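In the design runs reported in the main text, the only information available to the sequence generator was the tokenized backbone. The following block is the verbatim input for one such run; it is reproduced so that readers can re-run the procedure and compare outputs position by position.
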């Protein structure tokens, strides 16, 4: 049991072929807040990749033959154990990553729900009968289709949700009868390994799950390109996602690649709802969230009022120790990320943008920041910032706001705050994104909804039942009853 006052170093092993494996070489996991050593995990090499792939082949056969009631039981037991260890897991998430302890608790609770939904969806893998006699000459044919597992799935997960996004890949994979190789982010692998321990203890057969810890640039290509891997499920940066697609070859891919999320605030919006929703969406997890409120498009009639209230609420945000219950926002994942955010803000300011609040870096911490008058030719306008920075601009007509919202090459989620139903439906129809939130922040998501985007935001959909469709394939059975 981890305790926030403890100096215990977590020494974790990776899971290969049903065994917990250590190596002479290891990676240090350090708290991005202060650099303190949190844990150590093995540094996998290419031989370990081959072990994982060989084991996954055998594990795939075991997974495929697992009856559905067994898959349900394993996932339910895992959810129950995790629910009993919420505080322990939350502390690990906060220690190794970027979330405050309050944010981390919410992630663990969501992960419990993700596992439970996965167990429920396992019983809903259904097919349908096919009316073959719709085609002349097929009057004596009857049949159906069913769904079968893809086989071996490679899951590559990010640092910002190091537990729940792991569950979003492992849960549906198990529910669908697949084997899965998990490559967690090298900076936040500890809670992923803890979740794997829970699943093994819940009865997951040997080889169905491999968790390999290492550097993506060293072991990633072999994992992605191997023909035994039949699907790659990746959540992370767009450039890495595009490299994976080029390397993967003829296999299924699922890509969640980020966003530059716009929020439209109409002049009839309920500001008591809109302001706190947007502040939370802007600075949750220090803006290291693909659903981060990056662009605020505010109607000119209420622009100054909204801006004043946004700054007033944001200025009360407490930035600091993640394990302090009063802290609202923690650090960025590393100094490189913090400097990248600083550089993007400075680029905008040097090109004429106006700083309204924040704009300062202290080590890996970056202050909640709001900027206006940002020109269209700087990266803040069209790229994902992945930090606690939001730009604000005014508009007069909703058509103009929608056009600006659609102007970037991302389309994950958007939001519109309005009391007018016609305006809401217009936003829903015309915003080119995977989801439109009406009177809710762009960072709203439940784990059962289809989640994914258009354009540079990726391919496919997550959300347990939708992931399960990606991780299974239809197979047709056709009988010629004339010869039976």
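Verbatim output:
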């Amino acid at each position: 049991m981890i305790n926030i006052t403890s100096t215990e170093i977590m020494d974790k092993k990776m899971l290969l072929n049903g065994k917990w494996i250590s190596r002479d070489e290891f990676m240090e996991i350090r708290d991005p807040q202060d650099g303190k050593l949190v844990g150590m995990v093995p540094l996998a090499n290419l031989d370990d990749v081959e072990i994982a792939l060989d084991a996954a082949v055998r594990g795939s056969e075991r997974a495929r033959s697992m009856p559905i009631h067994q898959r349900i039981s394993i996932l339910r037991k895992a959810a129950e154990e995790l629910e009993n260890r919420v505080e322990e897991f939350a502390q690990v998430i906060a220690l190794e990553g970027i979330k405050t302890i309050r944010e981390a608790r919410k992630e663990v609770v969501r992960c419990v729900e993700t596992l439970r939904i996965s167990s429920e969806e396992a019983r809903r893998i259904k097919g349908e009968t096919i009316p073959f006699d719709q085609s002349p000459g097929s009057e004596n044919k009857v049949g159906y289709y069913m769904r079968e597992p893809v086989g071996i799935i490679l899951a590559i997960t990010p640092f910002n949700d190091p537990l729940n996004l792991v569950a979003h890949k492992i849960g549906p994979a198990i529910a669908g009868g697949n084997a899965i190789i998990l490559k967690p982010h090298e900076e936040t692998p500890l809670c992923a390994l803890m979740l794997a321990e829970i699943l093994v203890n819940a009865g997951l057969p040997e080889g169905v799950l491999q968790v390999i810890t290492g550097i993506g640039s060293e072991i990633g290509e072999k994992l992605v390109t191997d023909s035994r891997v039949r699907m790659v499920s990746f959540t992370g940066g767009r450039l890495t996602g595009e490299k994976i697609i080029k390397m993967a070859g003829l296999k299924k891919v699922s890509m969640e690649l980020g966003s530059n999320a716009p929020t439209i605030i109409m002049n009839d919006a309920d500001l008591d709802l809109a302001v706190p929703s947007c502040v939370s969406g802007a600075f949750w997890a220090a803006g290291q969230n693909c659903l981060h409120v990056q662009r605020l498009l505010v109607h000119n009639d209420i622009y100054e009022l909204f801006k004043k209230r946004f700054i007033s609420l944001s200025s009360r945000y407490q930035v600091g120790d993640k394990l302090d219950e009063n802290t609202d926002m923690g650090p960025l994942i590393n100094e490189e990320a913090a400097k990248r955010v600083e550089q993007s803000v400075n680029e905008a300011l040097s090109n004429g943008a106006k700083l309204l609040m924040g704009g300062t870096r202290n080590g890996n911490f970056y202050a909640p920041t709001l900027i206006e008058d940002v020109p269209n030719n700087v990266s803040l306008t069209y790229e994902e910032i992945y930090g606690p920075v939001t730009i604000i601009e005014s508009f007069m007509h909703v058509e103009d706001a929608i056009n600006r919202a659609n102007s970037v090459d991302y389309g994950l989620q958007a939001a519109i705050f309005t009391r007018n139903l016609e305006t809401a439906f217009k936003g829903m129809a015309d915003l080119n994104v995977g989801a439109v939130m009406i009177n809710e922040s762009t960072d709203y998501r439940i784990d059962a909804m289809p989640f994914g985007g258009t354009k540079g935001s990726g391919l496919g959909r997550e959300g347990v039942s939708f992931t399960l469709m990606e991780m299974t394939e239809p197979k047709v059975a056709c009988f010629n009853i004339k010869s039976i």
